[in-house]
């Protein structure tokens, strides 16, 4: 039996295939090797080696949030490309400050609040409390600013000294809540908005049916904003050791004060004792060199916030044992599965359920920062928390900047509710909006006509006027929803529905006012709420705290590690790699679309929402 060798063509293609296969394996192995090297660089490049007498430069850039609204891959790409996500997690700020307090190499904190984006009053108070803990160790905090609004100033006021640029200013103006009203515009378009609500002070949907705020809305807003303002003045007066009445007097006659200082806002702030010294950045650096350790020709020994945070992340390995689980509920409340930054009825309930079923979790803290939203989604979350308590695991609520309306709904079924004195809460009420456009169509010469098999058939058609029968149905549904709301609050708070109704009616309260009325148990921040949960679970001092969030994939973890690598970021920027500005900046879209998203797939909906926007 003889054998024949393969032909020339066959040998050619076999050789070509082997070459391609070898090349493929070589490329895959090289890519894997590069990833391993980058991972090692990411770890080694992220961990700073600190010398003694180092200053921690706390310069958060972006809005201070409870939870990132972008996924890890987006954040990693943004960091490497130079388009960093304009968000900073509150938990990261608090963790860095508390770690620095125990770090023998950190001598002081240099607080630079200028690039801190939107920061709520309760959030500012949490940061301030952490700075106070830092100062209690004998270390100092120096605030350096080119100019501050009143919320940033509330953080800076916790510093031992405040240094303001000679061309800067401190703007304390008080609080306001102004909205646009659309009735005339809608009338011109022929759009009819039908509002069905329960609660004299439930003003969330007034802009669609009025041209100005109702008297009840102004009365309620004046009360809760007045309470917040007095809290603010009292805190600033205590921190800066000045008279609150003097601050109010200066604001009331600000035009005269500015004129008397020839328009020099920085000198005015100094004379008002809102700051301690006027200094340029060069003068600030010189002071910090003299106070600490020199670094370079004119710098001082320092480590920035993000680099110090990355070093803590390396040490943040999961701890086993008894846990207090923290679940973040931030943003609008809508149905279904939602990404971070929005509260999904189903997705948030799943996180709560996962914590309940985890034997290592002994207590749950729900951190709420929400103006509310969809009533059905709110109820779904409340039920899950009720099941946690039935499982004999304590549930403690920590209210952030806002926990109103639906935000209060998800908070009420708990063992304990904590809020800051300047938290915005309450707004216990419910409403429904139904829009009809027959007049709009009539202006265009479009007319609607036909028949239905029942009086109710076609009544949800927005081309037709609202029928009295459907209006009656909606009224009954909303009335039931309100009664259910106050009934559940009454049961949770140990009161009668009548007692809750007297302080409900859609009325908004500050945290301190809510405590006086029995809607909140204690005043304090997230740390106090976590300690309370641990105490209720009888954990003593040996417990760990972990955030329960959707599990990240291996790729997301790897990408986030690369994105936080200072070495990799430096390499990318040195090479000139950048993405167009704004690629990952979709916060404004989220804010605008959150409420509209609640309507998705519905002809009408019931909402527990508070448009209590404070500026």
Structural class: alpha/beta
What is the CATH homologous superfamily assignment of the domain at 54-66 and 89-176 and 220-313?
2-enoyl-CoA Hydratase, Chain A, domain 1
Describe the largest sheet: 8 strands, mixed
Radius of gyration: 29 Å
CATH topology of the domain at 54-66 and 89-176 and 220-313: 2-enoyl-CoA Hydratase, Chain A, domain 1
Number of helices: 23
- As a percent range, the share of helical residues equals 40-55%
- Name the CATH architecture of the domain at 54-66 and 89-176 and 220-313: Alpha-Beta Complex
Unreliable sequence segments: 314-318, 552-563, 567-597
Shape: globular
Proportion in β-strands: 15-25%
Mean pLDDT: 85
| Number of DSSP-assigned strands | 26
**Separation of termini?**
95 Å
The CATH class name of the domain at 54-66 and 89-176 and 220-313 reads Alpha Beta
Describe this structure in words.
The protein is α/β, with parallel strands linked by helices. It has a domain of 195 residues: 2-enoyl-CoA Hydratase, Chain A, domain 1, CATH 3.90.226. Helices cover 46% and strands 18% of the residues. The strands form 7 sheets. Strands 14, 17, 19, 20, 21, 23, 24 and 25 form an 8-stranded mixed β-sheet that branches.
Short description:
By secondary structure, this protein is α/β, with parallel strands linked by helices. It has a domain at 54-66 and 89-176 and 220-313: Alpha-Beta Complex (2-enoyl-CoA Hydratase, Chain A, domain 1), CATH 3.90.226.
